[in-house]
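Task: fold both queries, return tokens.
Query 1:
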Amino acid sequence: MAWKTIKCPYCGYKKDITVNAEVKKFTSLCSCQKCHKQYWYVTEFGRVSVKKK
């Protein structure tokens, strides 16, 4: 398990998440604590990318 920081694509608010380096592609829906918009983040072998919903 590793800690990664993801950034909200709308307002830029940062959030720390745990990422498992062995997991293939995994998509999660996340809600920003600051602007409350929802966005997707995709984890793939320890790398994380974020995209708007």
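Query 1 returned. Query 2:
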Amino acid sequence: MQNMRIALVQMKSKLGQVEKNLATMQRFVREAAEKAVDIICFPEMCVQGYDREAAWELAEDIATSQFIASLVQMAREGNITLITGMAERNHEEKKPFITQVVVHPDSTVEKYRKTHLGKSEQPYFCAGDEFKVFSTPKAKFGIQICWDMHFPEMTTILSLKGCEIIFAPHASPSIVGDRRDIWLKYLPARLMITPSLSGPAIWWGTMAGDIIFAGEL
């Protein structure tokens, strides 16, 4: 792994307001590009907003989505790799994937689908089935989305597959207590497995009036 600069974004997304969310992301990308950042990581499902019941209606196909084209343009203009969360349309059943899209400066688009769903997510989403390794000229990295981070086996597998950095994008609504206390336990523990672990790119604020996200706690 070469020396590199990483940006982790804490932001508040608006449910279903993709254009506004993209505008917020564009500001972060421009600021990061000015500081010569190599990779910028945004939170889980930040493009459309995190809401379990609304996810199916908001989900989009990566191949045809207009906002993917916007992300490609951001990556190309900023010469930066974007890691961005979305609800991805599932063509086999009426439950979308929680997906983190990886957009490279050369316009290549890759993805990781969350493989470990929280209990409250399982009725609304489908789980992915592959632990992906992504490559940039400076490093190889993996992604563990929110609940994925509770499983050290996944971190071990990614490390054995050559990952030098693991990104941890979260939405993490605070429905089960103090999320920060939980992060301070398992994030340092994962550092014993992989040499470089980024902190969480996290939501803050409220969604649908009553769901509080931990970045605001």
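Both queries returned. Flag for query 2: The first helix runs from residue 18 to 34.
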